[in-house]
Amino acid sequence: MEGTISIGRTRAEHAYLELRQRIIDMRLPPGAALDEEALMTELGVGRTPMREAVKRLESDRMLTVYPRRGTIIADVSIRDLKEISDARRVLEAFAARRAAELATDEDRQRLQVCLDFLADAPSESNKASIGLDEQIHRAVYTTMRNSYVEATLIQYFSLSQRMWNFVLSGMAPITRNVQEHVALLHAVIDGDADKAAALAEEHVTHFEELVRSTL
């Protein structure tokens, strides 16, 4: 429930995660002013946790703080799409390669579960496809065992998710894009590092092309 702080979270972390999700899913759309006072009340946090959350989100490039003007949710642009995709092509390929090289039997079982989810994925639900896409990426990131690269990839992936959601209403079903993960997951499970890296890079390129055609 919104406004409820989960056990183990600080108030600043709670505010950050709640606001971040609202920015990603367009409840806080590009160009909107952030009403900090209202959000503090809604989320049950004080001014200091809210400021800490805003500072983190500004570092994540999800919002911009303007002196005397206030805090504005970041725009979505073709330039952002290109720069994020350029970075992700390199990092996603690295993650897939390392995952293929380092996957244990337990990792392979977890990735097989992702394949099973893909087989049962609804064909017409873009929101469900985006959620499944995130699960698969996170599974690959975990398998590569590099927390620094993983943190960077999560940041860029979140920005990419925001772009998905921004153009979602004007898009045909994106099931095909998500289904590209089938070959990628098989490559990681089989330990084919070169193929996994190539497929990961290709997947990001397809994402960029699809979003660019709608922006």
Automatic annotation (TrEMBL):
All copies of the HTH gntR-type domain together span 9-76
DNA-binding among the record's keywords?
A: yes
Gene Ontology molecular-function annotations:
DNA binding; DNA-binding transcription factor activity
Give the signal sequence positions.
none
* SMART domains in alphabetical order: FCD, HTH_GNTR
InterPro entries in the record: GntR_C, TF_FadR/GntR_C, Tscrpt_reg_HTH_GntR, WH-like_DNA-bd_sf, WH_DNA-bd_sf
- One of its Pfam families is FCD
Query: Sorted alphabetically, which Gene3D superfamilies does this protein's record hold?
Result: GntR ligand-binding domain-like, Winged helix-like DNA-binding domain superfamily/Winged helix DNA-binding domain
Which superkingdom heads the taxonomic lineage of this protein's source?
A: Bacteria
Q: For this UniProt record, give its keywords in alphabetical order, as a comma-separated list.
A: DNA-binding, Transcription, Transcription regulation
- Name of the molecule in the record: DNA-binding transcriptional regulator, GntR family
Provide the species name. Answer: Crystallibacter crystallopoietes
